[in-house]
Inverse folding.
């Protein structure tokens, strides 16, 4: 099936606008648009100094054999038209895949210069233990998980476990798909700082993670940028931990 290209122009423009406005991290995956998202990223970063941006991509869990991962990263690099990824993630755990083989191949990719670091996504504590045990040479850089102020479940067990093991947390769906904008508690805190609820929601996450919000709207992108460079007071942080 051919990819849907109707939104391409707007999506490329949004990435270019974000990069010009100071955002330097791009998150993609072989899954997104069955590779088409990586094609769009390539078009958006044309002419941008590669070293000034951080690109993450992900391998799908049915591709976790050595040859599967090498084939997947080769195709991602071709689509992205870049020589290396800053971070390469196993998109989801696969209980029937060989974790030692998958992590060993990730380590090989670092040595080959195709990726600078690797990690996992959607891994719970049990999956994390297996991944950590499988490393020989390099650390697991990050676990990318669903985490936002309206769904703080990872704070109970997963985030403390990752922190203990020096694995960074990348928070996806950090705006709960935009619903944080309507939270009355976030609106209340935002007023005190002359910020917006979206900015408070992202600032909250920055205490223990790297949030990766998505937007194709220039106004929203500017708003997202305003979530950094200031800090919630501890009392407000604790208040938001109770909602
Ligand atoms: N590892 C994984 O399994 C996984 C799974 C899901 C997502 N992800 C990654 O995480 C990224 C973000 O997650 P997501 O897209 O699921 O959720 P999200 O960032 O929480 O929400 C995106 C939605 O929020 C809206 N939005 C953005 N800024 C806003 C603002 N200032 N006010 C109101 N609404 C706003 C966007 O609409 P507009 O475009 O109109 O601004 C969009 O519809 C994805 O792009 C993807 O790279 C990873």
């Amino acid at each position: 099936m051919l990819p849907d290209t109707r939104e391409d122009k707007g999506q490329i423009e949004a990435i270019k606008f974000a990069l010009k406005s100071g955002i330097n991290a791009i998150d993609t995956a072989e899954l997104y648009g069955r590779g088409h998202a990586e094609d769009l990223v390539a078009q958006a970063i044309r002419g941008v100094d590669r070293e000034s941006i951080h690109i993450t991509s992900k391998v799908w869990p049915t591709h976790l054999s050595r040859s599967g991962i090498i084939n997947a990263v080769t195709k991602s690099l071709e689509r992205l038209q870049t020589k290396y990824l800053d971070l390469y993630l196993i998109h989801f755990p696969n209980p029937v895949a060989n974790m030692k083989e998958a992590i060993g191949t990730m380590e090989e990719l670092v040595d080959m210069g195709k990726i600078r670091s690797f990690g996992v996504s959607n891994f719970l504590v049990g999956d994390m233990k297996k991944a950590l045990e499988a490393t020989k040479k390099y650390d697991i850089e990050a676990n990318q998980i669903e985490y936002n102020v309206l769904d703080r479940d990872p704070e109970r067990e997963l985030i403390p476990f990752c922190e203990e093991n020096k694995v960074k947390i990348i928070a996806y769906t950090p705006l709960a798909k935009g619903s944080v904008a309507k939270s009355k508690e976030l609106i209340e805190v935002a007023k005190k700082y002359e910020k917006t609820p979206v900015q408070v929601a992202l600032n909250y996450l920055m205490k223990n993670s790297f949030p990766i919000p998505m937007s194709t709207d220039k106004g929203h992108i500017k708003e997202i940028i305003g979530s950094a460079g200031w800090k919630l007071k501890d009392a407000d942080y604790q208040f938001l931990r109770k909602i």
Notes: The mean pLDDT is 97. The radius of gyration is 18 Å. The longest strand covers residues 54-59. The first helix runs from residue 8 to 21.
